[in-house]
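Workshop exercise sheet. Pairs work together: one partner reads the sequence aloud, the other fills in the structure field after running the prediction. Swap roles for the next sheet.
Pair: D.N. / O.F.
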Amino acid sequence: MELKKLKARLSTAVRGHKLLKDKSDEMVRRFTVLLREDKRLRDEVEDDLAAALKQFALAGALTPAYVQETAFSMPAARVEADCATESVMGVDVPKIALTQTTSAALPYAFSEITSEADDSVRMVSALLPKLLRLAEIEKAVRLLSYEIERNKRRVNALEYVMIPQLEETIKYIRNKLDENERAAIVRLMKVNGA
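Structure field:
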């Protein structure tokens, strides 16, 4: 009875090991896809941000600071972010939907501010969705990496601890049963021969 139970547990452990291994491989594949996307988006955001900061620096050099503060103290756009989650291989990763409404006119007079400041404001406005997407991807990468590590520990525990222990126990029980069977045959032979 115990041998039958152990064989069933071994079969389940082997099947579970295969499923966890497949899940791990798929998570690693998706992780690398997200990592490539993260790298591409990060480079793009850094380039755009450098260009926007260069424009702001140029605008700051051409416009007095108090005029800039007055011009940029009023928001030119309204931004709403709807946060939700989606499941990637059983891991809940964030999904952010951005709703951005911009007014037709900028909240300052064009005579007070240079065109470089206008360009920099437009650049930063265009950069916001990319920044949110980058944050979303980086959080997904971090969560997937934690889950990959947990799954790897489970796979290793099955592969190197549980399955070998079950196989060893099954082997021991089989040997004991075979030994008992041989002892019974020897007893029968002695009884029949006497």
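Discussion prompt: DSSP finds three helices and two strands in the chain. What would you look at next?
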